Amino acid sequence: MIKKIVLLIVVSSLFACGGDDRQVSSSIDPGPTAQPTIPTEPTIPTEPTEPTGPSEPVEPNEPLEPVTPVPPTPTEPTDPTPSEPIETPNAKNSIRQFTFNHSLWVHSPSRTPNTNVGYWIGEFASAGNTLYAWNGQFGQLDYHALPPSPQLGSSNSPDIYPTENTAFRDLTLDNVIIMPPNFIQDTSTASNNSIADAQRVIDWVLANREQSPIIYIYEHWPEASSDEFSPSEWNQYHSQTTGNYHQWFLDYQTQLKNRYPNVDIRMIPVGPIISEILQNEALQSSTLSFTDLYEDGAPHGTTNLYFLAALISYQAMYGQPAVAQYTPPNEVHSNISGEFSEINQYIWQRLKAYNEAGVRLWPNADENTELTIVNNASELSAAIRASNGGTIALNAGNYGCLRLENLNFQASSPLIIEGQADVIFDGASCSYTINIINSSYIVVKNVSVIGGLDGVRVNESNHIIVDSLDVSLTRQAGLHIGKNSAYIDVINNYIHDTGMANPQWGECIYVGTGSSENFPDETTHVWIENNTIENCGFAEAINIKPEVFNSTVRGNAVSNISPGSTLYNQYNQSAITIEGGRGSDPNANHRPNDARGVWVEDNIITNVSGGRWNYGIMVGGTGVYVTRNRLEQTDDNGIYVNGYGDLGLPVYLFDNTLINTTIRTASGVNILSDTQSSNPNRPQSWH
Q: Whole-model pTM?
């Protein structure tokens, strides 16, 4: 299977580690005084067996209903406060990247983080509740060591390296950044040497990943002729940045696209947009001087320059503006911080304009998929019946129940059902609000799911992605995956307030089966990441059943869990449970000699209380890895290694953080520490 990652090619500064002995021209080519073809805006995550739950109710034929958005007409943005609402095409909620960078991304590894683009992206990601994880290697593109060494990162963002010994091939990556220098743009055509330097790194990355990368070219700013400019030289510098320098990057992108016809190559016009901000008299930033942004003729930047570069890069990579309510710290110039919201919106409009003009930042809706816009349930039903793959965009409204049965698409043309704003699926009239049965290559994202016995049910299906849903007020589970399903990703969702009718079966996420009538339910390759989970009745936040293999529970925020209840005679015990084998019935054990290969990593679990038992994580001896989790405020042990259903397979327990809580282990369970291994499971890559 081919997975996409993002390679950001940043053509950047002269300086990496020490000086450079090549001759560099100090003159500025003023370029054309008029703006080059700069785009107009585009249209556009002690243990008895568990009692069997109630038999599944008969499911009525559930209606389908979709809606689609009408994109605004693009106009050249001169006013930094556009009147039309901001759209978010191709929005992402998480990015993991490795950077092959030099000093126009990180001024110097030893300097303050304020002159580090990755640091500021981390600040915007934190404010927007999006995930940003990274590390990188410092140096010039033509002499970066391969394989690279992780040398950078920032304290406000997670490290993509689980351990220092993790191989590049084993990293979970969305994005790799590479940066050639900024002193080679003497003409409007990229040289063979500049292309060869890019190819050396791209080829190595392709050979050392199982994934075909998206490549982002980071278009920055040219070197300067001196450490200070007169007003006329300042204007000439901006004309060069938006003129011949920009044309060089367009040629650079075209040449790389021709050399890699099967790779998605994109570009982020950082330098030109910064120049446009500084020349836009409607913005206070236009009064900033050269020394407010640059320190020297390279030109390395001040905090202000790296801040703006990060704001543009964040929007381009995440496909959405930064959070408008973000308040820049005092070290950012008041002319920028005082009109952050206006600059934020202006950048978004300019990125859309460049994208429409051919500086490809995002795939256009009609490139690889058909777009259908719908407004109600009947239109959604008709669109699904007619679809051979593509995106069905739902405009605001209540779409009732959604049943997707016997719908099989392909990785190259999946079915994407995506809400645009205030889209609700309401399960008042059906058993399962969104019910996916015997189907494949379907994405459901950006909708609210209310009610139903289960909010989302996925059975006998494969290659399904559930992304950025708000699931609540279900009668039982929030989301239930089972009946031999495979390759199911549950990412970026908010799942809460479940089990309203049967709180003992109110698991927010339930994988596999507790019912002997469905044994064995061998559900595999489930990826549960970056979800916020709370208030799951008297059940677990995440319950992984005994016949689930090769799955991952990663980076979830879990709180306010009360597992188990004497009132309901229910034996739920922890916030996250990875159950042991069926040890009480040896004849029922399924693949007893095979490790489950389930990884529980990087989760934050707080306030587990008020239940029959109140553990943070409970696992059995079935070949499970528990690592780098943070647990606090658990009324019982933070981690409980349970002997019930022990198959004699190890539990790997290492690098967890427990605050005012402890680890409890049952006798006889084989517990090991394996800090050298990294998770072999992967999220899906076709979307």
A: 0.56
